[in-house]
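Researcher: Can you fold this with zinc ion in place?
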Amino acid sequence: MEPATLRPAAELHVHLRGAMPPAYFAQLLERHPPARALAQAPERHLAFFRRWPHLAGFLAPDAPAGADLFGFSTFPGFLASYLLSGYFVRTPADFRGLLDAVATDFVAQGLRYAEVTVSVPEYLMQGIPLEAVCEALSEASRRPDIRLRWIVDLVRNFGHDAALDLLRRLLARPPAGWVGVTLGGSEAEFPPGPFRESFELARAHGLGLTVHAGEAAGPESVWEALRELRVDRIGHGVRAVEDPRLVEHLAERGIPLEVCLTGNVKTGVFPSLAAHSLPQLDAAGVAFTLNTDDPTFFATTLAGEFEAARSLGISEQALGDALANVERFAFDRDACRIRFSPLRLC
Ligand code: HPA
Ligand code: ZN
């Protein structure tokens, strides 16, 4: 008999637009030719896009559709691609279509539960009303074929006042399936501490707390996230290895890391998969889950992330723990546990 292979059916760290099927992006590009999509972009965004040769195709007057969105090799280059992709999700119908395309793709891969990070400020910036965003999220959370739960990315680059304002508006009329908040965006430029009030408010309303930290910045960013934001989980956290005291602290307190191996290599956080810190973190007893982050941008799948971990020498026991940790640390444990077991083998 073939040995049983682990078939992961749930994950906790995947960005909605980062999971956009390429065929759907091609449709959006047809709907919104780049010159028109970018016509209203502020100069600071255009200047950011111009810094990256891989995005040049989008900025030329006769921009060829589908230029090299995925041609980045650094973290800021990736963020530029990610931000740019948001300029093509411009209407409530685009946003609903994105949710549907992503959910359909997840189901086809065998996913049954996903906590999906949604960069709400970036959709509002394109002129999609918050009510339309919330309605679409609520509807998608009721799909019978997959449990989708939402982690709102307050997007650190928009600053704390904007984060708090958005949080209050969302709390006044919360979308169904909303389970947590995070901060994505430029970690090196926007440390977590100043977002403390927003995270306190979110906690007071029973939301789960996570934050991107220890990805594009070092251990001090993770310490600050723990101290100031009192998060339940850390998005990435893989640069914690630069401070042995922090690794000990994470292990002792059982604070889990949402590890995304392929993305860390594609964005240059580590020069190669072999150089990734996961084996060290695992050996030190730090709890982790495996996740795709932005599977379309990083050309990966959840099953692919498990293969990557295996190729790093992570044991089958530890991979089983990583699956169990999804349920253990999910922000909607009942939805993750009752109907679907992420531990299912096939
Ligand atoms: N880090 C920070 N911001 C992001 C990411 C990420 O991995 N993906 C999309 N926005
Ligand atoms: Zn992420």
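Model: Folded with zinc ion in place. The pocket of hypoxanthine (ligand 1) is lined by residues 15, 18, 82, 184-185, 212, 215, 263, 293-294 (CB under 6 Å).
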